[in-house]
Amino acid sequence: MAHVHLDEEAKELLRELHRKAKAGPPVKKAPVTAPMPAVVEAVSVSTIAPDPVSVAKPVVVEEVIAIPAITESGDGSSRSAAAAQIAALAARAEKSTAARGLGTLRETMVFSVGNPEAELMLVGEAPGYHEEREREPFVGPAGQKLNEILKAMGLSREAIYISNIVKFRPAMPGQTTNNRKPTPEEMAACLPFVRAEVGVVRPKCIVALGATAAEGLLGLTGTVAAMRGKWHEFEGIPARVTYHPAYLLHGTAGQGDKRKIWEDMLAVMAQLGLPISDKQRGYFLPKA
Predict the structure, then answer these.
(1) CA–CA separation, 237 vs 200, rounded Å?
(2) Which of 79, 93, 144, 223 has the most CB atoms within 10 Å of its CB?
(3) Topology classification of domain 78-274
(4) By the 8 A CB rule, do 132 and 106 touch?
(5) Can you give the pTM of this predicted structure?
(6) Residue 193's pLDDT is what?
(7) For residue 220, is pLDDT > 70?
(8) Where along the chain do its domains lie?
(9) How far is 101 from 273, CA to CA, in rounded Å?
């Protein structure tokens, strides 16, 4: 038998081959990959709707204002008694905790003006810059327009009763001559006084001047165009809605808008039984 001489390097190679043959075929290992990052859904707090049951909404409870009991003067004048009742209501309104407690109204109160036994009562939304200075409703440019409308109806400012839903000028930061619409909370806080005023005056007809007055007085929403042209009711008294006199000061108001306001006033005159001439019926109609 022939012998082959192997050096140490060859021997080590043979030993390695023998070990591999004894261990069997190599086991394939799964490739090592980086772990997948966990998916986290980001939720913005502002997009989570609060539970409607757990969130308490402010509830405005309307205060009941009793009409002050006033003894008539010695001459038996009911007008004197009515005027005293309105004065007593105004004094109470000036200290109203419901209105002042809101912290959103200015200090000066503007209550009402006119005849406390008038057949016609006009209601606006809230005093503005001019009204606050004079402490009287409708004394600015809009008030001048209102005076013109009354004159065309054959009425004077002194013959009717004029009030506002809100008795204080709504406040604004850095306020000068600018005004804002009163909030529902501000109107609700002052509405009991308007109810009491109606109870004293007992007018035959009420006119809400503008959408805000209609909202606060009659609970209506929407446009004046949709509210006007029909009769509503407040405390059992017929009520009409028309555009605020300030609307006529806008550059967009035309002859047709003036006619719409006048048609509302013609309906009021008919309700009050006032005489209406052919000339009055023809105001603001297109010329033939």
Answers:
(1) 13
(2) 93
(3) Uracil-DNA Glycosylase, subunit E (3.40.470)
(4) yes
(5) 0.76
(6) 98
(7) yes
(8) 78-274
(9) 43
